[in-house]
Amino acid sequence: MSELKTITRREFLAGGSLLLAGTALKLNATPLLQSVPKEPIIDMHQHTSYLGRTAAQLLAHQRTMGITTTILLPAGHPVNYGSTHYGVSNGLQAQVTPNEASNQMAQQYPREFLFGANEVPDVANAIQEIEKYLKLGAPVIGELKFNIDCDAPEMQKIYELAEAYEVPVVMHWQYKMFNWGFDRFHKMLEKYPRVNFIGHAQTWWANIDKNHTDQNMLYPKTKVTPGGITDRLLQDYPNMFADMSAGSGLGAFTRDEEHARAFLQRHQDKLIYGSDCADIAGQGEACLGAQMIAAIRRLAPSKKIERKLLYENARTLFKIKV
After folding, report:
1. Which residue intervals define the domain Amidohydrolase-related in the entry (predicted)?
2. 141 strand-pairing partners
3. Model pTM greater than 0.85?
4. Are strands 197-200 and 169-172 parallel, antiparallel or unpaired?
């Protein structure tokens, strides 16, 4: 059932000011009708300007999915560095905009959006840039999606900052592309036990399988044998969590649904829903985020576990007051 969304005077004036300023958010097409979800859902992984999607389209997308709180993960600023493949992977390789846009969207829609903090790790002011947005209230750093070793000194400075501000770090794992050294990341978990790390993307989810030996295979579709690197990291380290988003996350749970049910049972306190989809539909087969919600509801061993995955785990980890 839908109802007309009440727009406060503050929101109206903020929207008007934003349009007059001619910002890149382009919210002139903001929908007024919003579906009211029966149960709250936190989406821990979305982006501004994702592959050119407008802010109005993003807003409509999240509302269509039934999301009540969305965390916007920004990109670093564009640079021609090796860590961005000399510019090729600027914008998280998806036209995602830096901190300012995420913060601005969250300021305009404070009941629906939160903003993360990010920067290219090896630029001179990386720590200062990330810290600026942590001081403004960012509940997370990331996603860290850069062509750099996961244990590089520059990365460890970010982990130290996360420890100081008590916020988690989102890591995009993609073999020979982003965050090199997945097989030795356990050393960072041990070195920074007070930092909560969130694993995400192809290499992270491919390695739920003990028999996954070809790391060049990013989207395996075979049956899963428990005990892969990812499975062990979640089991052995209290500070390791997982972001269920994107095609890699959806594929990990739909490739072997019998294994998925046991995996959800086993790691029910470590898994967090995210969408990370760039479509404008927000529903059906066109939308990975909507498909992931449906998969969670179908595969969760109990209603209690479903609510943990879609809401409670994120609320606790990101210290969200809803």
Report:
1. 42-319
2. 117, 169
3. yes
4. parallel
